[in-house]
Amino acid sequence: MYDCSMKAEAIIFGLLVLSTGFAAGSSTTNNGDLCRFFANETKLRDPASCNQYITCVDFVSQYQSCTTDKPFYDKDTQKCVTTLSNNSTCQISCEKYVGGFVNDPSSCNGYYYCKDAETALYGKCPENMHFNGTNQMCRYKSDSTCKVKEFDICSIAKKETKVLDENDCRKYYECSSKGVLTEKTCASGKYYNAITGTCLDKWMVDCPKIPLPDNICGTKAKPVKNKFVSDDATCRGYFYCGDKVVPDPAPIWGSCQNGTFFDATSQSCASPLQVKCPTGADRCDGRSETFVSGSESGCRQYLRCKEGKTVEQKSCGNKFFDETKIACISTPITYQSCARS
Q: Containing domain of residue 234, as a range?
């Protein structure tokens, strides 16, 4: 029997596992809250009620209810309304039930009182009870056979709403103009930032697990064997491609020690000034210096680091940044890390 008292986040979590595989092999970082998938200030219809809606604030769900005279939350207009015209998940008809009660189609303990053929007033049973439309009364859960029909995530979110992919920082999902959940991929060198709902440079996004790049160990026709390759996400990280199965489907990830970067050419950990990092990677990673050379072609940019992370990007204008002197100088700098391609 379906237990309608479960929290909305539990409902949506099950949906995501079944429909998109969001949760497979992932780690939940925000106690399973539904809003961990959505950008700040995103508004959603509560999956467990047609009368409630959610505002996401810093990945935490803030619940609010519509008034009795406007009992439905419209996910597309993001307003409380008297009737819904295009939402089969929540739409009810009072034409045959004037003066009576009908079940809330998305909640076991919710119901609507049909004041007249066009006016439905919302109400709900106590938490330990379900509404029974046949008997027109609230009954204990143990006596209920209530089952709420399945829904998809785009039935609670406005069109073009973006949804986090917990398995891959490069990707996200979006509810299309037709209300269909569609997979999207950020441009090269970018990761999806859930709180802003945008793709940003990799160094600006905290990715809990480095995603496995496509064809990282080559293809069947041209496999990479017994070799270290960049993880394409960080300056220090690499994968080792073995030769037992080619191409290696599960290369082992590793990282150079602090103060060094992985150099694919020499197959070793080298001085950061000798290594050109993957696009969007953080050159402050694992370094103790406060100011380091950036990666932009021409060596005219530098970064301010704090605790091994970039906090600010600066420019020397027409001059060049000398990492040893920690100064912008007129003499051209030829670090390999920022040499012109």
A: 216-277
